[in-house]
Design a protein that fits this description.
It is built from 11 helices and 16 strands. By secondary structure, it is α+β, with helices and mostly antiparallel strands. It folds into 3 domains: 113 residues, no CATH class; 124 residues, ATP-grasp fold, B domain (D-amino Acid Aminotransferase, Chain A, domain 1); 64 residues.
Length: 317
């Protein structure tokens, strides 16, 4: 039996085989790469046989701990669907998704999941996040989800101001490929073309000029926060996606009370690990979103090391 089975989309740059092998050196580790061209699936309902082969070899599916990185929802957009840029791409992604959910269901009782896929999928839902944060005492920027132009501009303060618009679907690699993770909007822009947002609900949020962004990593009952400070005026609304080379990073040790609320929220979602994005403005913390299996490979190496230690301890405990 494996100690750790890492279930990862093969196109994921942040958590690859080399990284998992290094962090979990000394323990028996296996990999299940979803959507990899060499992956072959054989499921026989009559004999209850499940066989997954990669690079010609059988993938052991029995493990003490399972890690699913990045968030489970991203498994729908694997390298198979990405390479085949034709009308069957969505079909291919959906078919792999059905297989993946079946494997999750079959393996769920075998060992410990970091994170349980169903919990991660629920926690990825931005609407559930918004309604779960407030009972934990977390403050958010004024936010609405709507496809009505008048309701959208209602989050803006009087006068000339701008807000943030975000998709309510999955972010990360998916939105980076197909749409902006977030963008600025003004009252005039929305009213000039109200039909542009009628096609689907979106997230509209009041823009808060922040002193810093806070990325908090929760490992069970422990939390580590990283402060992200832009060196100049940020050119994009989402610093962690766009302006990493123009920012300074450091451990943040002054937010224990706020971190305790985040730990409680992560526990509410049934997760043991998560990365939470927040803003700090005028001494106040504003909750933005939960990333159920968010990464940290984009941080400076000296800040990655303590996170890797905590993650290894969480999985192997």
């Amino acid at each position: 039996m494996l100690d750790v089975l890492a279930v990862i989309p093969s196109r994921t740059p942040s958590f690859d085989r080399k990284w998992v092998s290094r962090v979990f050196a000394g323990v028996k580790t296996g990999f299940l790469l979803l959507g990899h061209p060499s992956t072959e699936v054989f499921i026989n309902a009559g004999s209850s046989r499940i066989s997954i082969r990669q690079d010609g070899a059988e993938v052991p599916l029995e493990a003490r701990s399972y890690i699913y990185l990045p968030s489970s929802c991203e498994r729908q957009h694997t390298v198979v669907a990405k390479i085949r840029r034709d009308r069957y791409a969505d079909f291919v992604a959906r078919e792999w998704d059905v297989v993946t959910q079946f494997l999750e269901d079959r393996l769920a009782a075998n060992g410990k999941w970091i994170n349980p896929p169903k919990s991660a999928r629920r926690a990825s839902n931005k609407l559930i996040q918004l309604f779960s944060a407030r009972p934990r005492g977390l403050v958010m920027p004024q936010t609405v989800v709507t496809n009505n132009a008048r309701q959208a501009i209602g989050v803006l303060p009087p006068g000339k101001s701008r807000g943030l618009s975000k998709p309510i679907g999955e972010s990360g690699n998916i939105t980076a490929d197909w749409m902006a993770p977030s963008s600025f909007f003004t009252r005039d822009e929305i009213l000039a073309d109200p039909d542009s947002i009628q096609v689907a609900p979106g997230c509209f949020q009041r823009f808060i000029p922040a002193q810093l962004e806070l990325r908090t990593y929760v490992f069970g009952s422990r939390a580590i926060s990283i402060a992200i400070r832009p060196r100049g005026k940020a050119t994009t609304p989402d610093l962690t996606c766009q302006d990493l080379e123009e920012a300074d990073f450091s451990l943040a040790t002054d937010f224990q009370s706020y971190e305790s609320k985040l730990v409680a929220l992560v526990k509410d979602f049934g997760l043991s690990y998560a990365a939470i994005d927040s803003l700090v403005a005028r001494g106040r913390c504003y909750f933005l979103e939960v990333n159920p299996n968010g990464g940290w490979r984009w941080l400076p190496p000296d800040l990655q090391a303590p996170l890797e230690r905590e993650f290894r301890q969480l999985v192997l405990a």
